[in-house]
Each structure stands twice: as structure tokens, then as C-alpha cells.
Amino acid sequence: MRTDMHINGKWTGGSGSTFATRNPATGEVIAELPEATPADVEAAVEAAAAAFEAPEWAGMLPAQRAKVLLRGADLLEQRADEFARLETTDQGQPLAISAGFSVPNAVEHLRYYAGWATKITGTTAPLSVPDVDHRTRREPLGVCGLITPWNFPLMILVWKLAPALAAGNTAVIKPAEQTPLTTLLLAEVLDEAGVPPGVVNVVTGGPEAGQALVRHPKVAKISFTGSTAVGREIAAEAGRALKKVSLELGGKAPSIIAADADIDAVVEGNLMSGLLNSGQVCAAATRFYVDSSRADEFAEKMAGAAGSMKLGPGLDESTQLGPVASLEQLEQIDRYVDIGRSEGAHLLTGGGRADGELANGYFYRPTVFGGVAQDMRIAREEIFGPVLSVLPYDDPEELAPRANDTEYGLAAYVWSRDIGTANRLAHQVKAGTVWINMPPLLDAGAPWGGMKASGAGREMGWEAVEAFTEVKSIWTSLS
């Protein structure tokens, strides 16, 4: 297990203090890691800036970059069990998620963007100027600061890193201080895959390290996934420096359930979308709009299904719901549940921290509220935990306005047997992604990102290549 920072191809303990990363299933310390100082961030950025210009990387042919990424994917896949168990230990997600979703998705993204490395093309355009030839080329930006969250540390890192490297950029990564371990292990794998020194650097630590990275004048772009509040601060800093920025921020996804929907299928699909990774998913369905004639039935079935899920350590293969990632997050979830009670929502199941043999870990019982009103805080603010709200409606015409009555716009779900109704609602809802009659799925080829306060820019697909390149126009006289 790597615990040092990775700067310019070397492992270093840094020059500052240390911090602990804990196993959320037990609360015990897994390891102590270095808290990056401004000098450490400076060294990492300088290494990345030098590597960007060095012939080992700048002169590497696109086909060679593709081979490096493919080799990285192969090595990650070969060590998939090691990565999955480390992710589960550090973050808490059940092995069914880490081994079945997070690691395979990271492998997929490395292979997908390896394919793009040889296909990042420009265009030619007919101009209304005589005797000139005009073409464009896409060029890498330079040093990219990648700041990643604690809910899917490895997977979301690769969403950023794979297209950045495919386009020829270099990177300084600052993982969330709660979950840094698989990021460091990935740096080791990429070294073995043939990524030159300085191309991928990792600094560990808290907000101060992230701030130093955002403010560094040699960082050309920041890609951040995390809270909307922090995203706004990063956007402000980047705006003052005229620095490129991509933000994937919070969400409060509505799930719109039409009167004709198959309730049993809807409960199953929404249980997955609402409680995946203990609700620590920015696209989690957390507010369910259900026809008032069926709202009680839906709420009771959802509460029964949620309440029967098995909580436990993620390394136990029978676990369905693991701990939340930190004590801080556990306490925030509990505060929101208290708010829901005080606002008059009907608590149907859950509503407290797990006890008994799970008491030392950060386990929260899956919680379902019925009778939730639109103006309640639990229906408007991102909780980021296993807390679900059922909101009855009477008039289908109010669905889209109510779903859009939020500052967020990351994802939404629509459930209806009438495909016309479903698609009309999908068009009306202001969200970056809408799933119709299905739980949330992701693919490297499908753009991902939010509207409104859920972010700016897109990850995945060709859009991620655009996000890590800029266009240059070249004019040539033909006379």
C-alpha cells in the first residue's frame, strides 16, 4: 500500500505534517499520509510543467500514448481485486460496487480514451478569403489539476485522467483526504505502464493543498468533482486567472413516477438509484414524485425494501449497504433526518445510526420519509446519504415545474409505460442526464455533467477530449 506522495516519478513523504485515513467500517486508522505543503504542490506542478515540454511525453506519438494507456488498463485489470479491496477498505463501498462497478469502469475508461489518442483531429473549412488554406488542430492544454471526491475515488479520477493523458496533457492530482489510497496505487500502475516521470503526480492533503493547486499560475486547467459550495470557490479563482475549469457538483435528482408506472419495478429501480453506495452518489434519486393515489403504496414498499437491506462492512460479500465515508458525513446525515422530523415529514423506516456490532463504524440505517412537501429542506438540499423522500402529486402538469424547482440539475429519472409521456417529461426536466424506465448506468461514450448549480462542462465521450484540448487555427497562403 502506497502512502507517500508521487512527484516527478518518485515517492516522497513531503516536508509537512501527516493526516490519517480511516476505515469507515470500523473507524480505525488505515494509514498516515503526508499533508502536502505549498512547496510540495509547487514541486509537483513544476514537474508536470517540465514533463509537458519534455520529448519523452511531448514527442510521444499518439499511437504510443494509446499503448501506454492500454497497458495501464491491462495492469489495473490484472490487479482488480487488490484495487477493489483497497477502495472498499478506504471508502466503505461494498465489494459488489468496487469490484463490480468502480474498477471495471476505470478500466473501460482507460481503454476508451486510448482509442481516442489517435483520433483527436482538426478540421478544414472553406473560407471566403481567396488563396488561403485554413485548418484547425486540437492541442493539449498543459498542466491539469485534477481534484477528486471521496465517493468514487478511483473511478472519477480515471474519468478525468484518461482523456487528459490521451490528449497529451500532464497532471497533478489531489485526491480527497478521506480516500487517497487507490489514487496512489494507480500512480504506481501508470509508472509501470510507461508513463514518463512528471506526467502524473499526486499530492495528498486537505483543502489547503487543493487551493494551492487551483491558484498555481502554471496550472492551465482545473477539473473538480465535489460540492457545489467548493465548486463555486474554484470557479471564482479560475475566473480571476482566466483558467479553464470543469466542474461536476452536487445534485438532488428527482424521480418522476407516472400513475401508469409498474410500482414494483419502480421500487426496485429506485432503490438502486437512491441507495447505491449508501446514497453517496451525486446522481442519486432522492425525491420521488408519485401520483397521490399510489404514493402510500410506493412509500410503504420502498420503506419495506430499504429497511430489509443488510448493512455491514464492505468486505463482507453479503453486505448490501456499507458505511458512509466519514464520521463528518454520518453526522450531517443525522442532522438532516432530524430536520425532516421537525418539518413534519413521516419517518417510515430508518432514521438513525446503526448500533450493535456496527456501532464503531459509520453506518446509517436506510431512511425513507413519506408525506414530504416541496419546501422542506430534505426535499431541497443535498444530503448525500441513504435518505429518500416521497412527494405526492395530484396534477401531472405540475411534475416538470416541481422537478425543476431546485438549484441543481445533474440527473433525473422518469418512469411511465407511455413512452410519449416519458419523453415529454425528459425534455422538460432541466438535468444533464435523464434515465427513462431504468436505474442509473454510465458508459465512457456517454457525456456526463450537470446544469445550473450542478456544474459546468462534461466528462466522458468526445466532450471530455474537448475539455482537455484547445483549438488552434492555422492559415496558409496559397499565393
TrEMBL record:
Active site location: 248
SUPFAM superfamilies in the cross-refs: ALDH-like
Family: Belongs to the aldehyde dehydrogenase family.
Keyword Oxidoreductase included in the entry's annotation: yes
Domain of life: Bacteria
Protein name: Aldehyde dehydrogenase family protein
Domain Aldehyde dehydrogenase, chain residue ranges per copy: 11-474
Record keywords, A-Z: Oxidoreductase
